[in-house]
């Protein structure tokens, strides 16, 4: 199931798919990166990726990791089952807002509802204000429910976009206890981009590979990156395929496959690892600067 989150639906509009409800942080990321595109809400990550695979949408905006909550486990199991490419990354600062119905005052709020992670990230502020925290399925979904409730003693924690879409007032911006909470998104497409190296561009390359669970297998697979001076930005492991005999890895590398040192490192990886698949190379986001 998917729903249009754009201002109007038209047959020739460019579309970006995301998982969640209108006003979710993934929707906000779509607005930032593709401000003139129609954002299409999907019930789950697989549906968002499938809309790209079948041509209904040009891109999918998928969260990979959060600086507070860690990695999105499900994504690592879905990526190998698609034939899509990564064409960009986006870092979205998570600014939790305390939302209420128009005319409500902070002094009258008794309960605040949101996704458990959002509640945990705002725990100290909620406690200091003497509010009761109520767990909900989704930040934006709770904002929508609040807009229909007529209850001025109730608040929701969600994005500024949710406030805009559902006609709510922002009683407190940056409601989270700790600043700097950020989610990294990957943008998926049917076609690879940035295949030709351009001088002066700082690239990130995402790839997957597997190694057998034998001594030094990973050490040998990664050795070429060390000897050729290639920086590994991220390495995640996961088990898949119903067997414990093979470990699968997702890796982000600083560099482009057409650079000489990367070429040599990737040759060694190909020799020692299996199922090597380059998901895509793309310019590093300004957040990394």
- State the secondary-structure class: alpha+beta
CATH architecture of the largest domain: 3-Layer(aba) Sandwich
CATH class designation of the largest domain:
Alpha Beta
| DSSP strand tally | 16
Question: What would the average pLDDT be, to the nearest integer?
Answer: 93
- Cα(first) to Cα(last) distance is 38 Å
Describe this structure in words.
- It is a single chain.
- The chain is of the alpha+beta class and 289 residues long.
- The chain folds into three domains: 2-94 and 182-189, Periplasmic binding protein-like II (D-Maltodextrin-Binding Protein, domain 2, 3-Layer(aba) Sandwich); 97-172, D-Maltodextrin-Binding Protein, domain 2, CATH 3.40.190.10; 203-288, Alpha-Beta Plaits, CATH 3.30.70.
- Helices cover 27% and strands 34% of the residues.
- The chain has helices spanning 25-33, 45-53, 73-78, 116-121, 123-128, 139-149, 160-166, 217-227, 260-272; strands at residues 2-4, 15-19, 38-42, 59-66, 70-71, 85-93, 97-100, 111-114, 132-135, 154-158, 169-172, 182-189, 203-212, 232-238, 246-254, 274-283.
- Strands 1, 2, 3, 4, 5, 6 and 12 form a seven-stranded mixed sheet that branches. The chain has a five-stranded mixed sheet with strand order 9-8-10-7-11.
- Helix 6 packs parallel to helix 7 and helix 8 packs antiparallel against helix 9 (260-272).
- The protein is elongated and about 65 Å long.
